[in-house]
User: What shape does this take?
Amino acid sequence: MSNKFPICVALPMYRSKYNGWIALESLIRQKEVPCEWELVVAEEVRDCFGEERVMKYSDRLRDTGCGSIKYISLNDWIPLSLKWVLIAKNSKSEYFLLQGVDDFTQPNRLKETYDIFKNTNADWVRSPVGYVYDIHSNIVYLFDRSKRDKHPGGLNIATKTDYIRSLNNDFVASGVDHWIFRMIKLTTSKVKIFENISESWKKGVCTSGLNRISLKRAEQMKYQRKMRVFEKTEINIKDILEEEIINRLRESYLLDSKMMSGSDIRNK
Assistant: This one.
């Protein structure tokens, strides 16, 4: 497949009726993006955010350099692993940015990731540290990947789209970033990892309390705090996000909690 765009922002959604806006709001705030990019969304029809609402962002996304928006509607649930592969096969880009639907990504992510790929020929880009905002407790935690020895994960992960296109159709619903990394290692002799150590991460945040994976994240954080992977901070969320976004997060948390009451927890 010929690459038309340097960057694909891959955005899988699942039951994102009340939180699909989070990633989109952060994408329209991207700064100084040096190239044209594409957005590919894959989402099941159940409790969906929907194509119409995604497309309402088209003009503002275009202002940041987005040259194409593709929305893939799924009648039935598929695991996150297959969503990444599906998005990659529908992408016309060289580089593949894994975007969590409940992550308010930092404003320089596209620029910095593109520059890293072009200047280093990296296979795997990640941020080693970042904030996680627990909406329920109103606490901001600091995630530090260095506490997880040899784990390939991190935040703001990106890789080459060809690697994702060539992945097996494995049924993987959790730990998917680790699975992707292991599969890439099977196809290339050595994966060149580059850690983005820019401090731009301080203006982005992952959320905990929304979305199917982050409903599990509270227990994961509780366990990993013992290993100091997540540490409680005194940071005020108002120092990271605009008040309008904070208010919308809290409103979405209440609506999403009601929708998910008694429901199954599957994937992002």
Q: What stands out?
A: The domain at 5-260 is CATH 3.90.550.10 (Spore Coat Polysaccharide Biosynthesis Protein SpsA; Chain A). The CA atoms of residues 103 and 206 lie 4 Å apart. The longest strand covers residues 5-13. The first helix runs from residue 21 to 27.
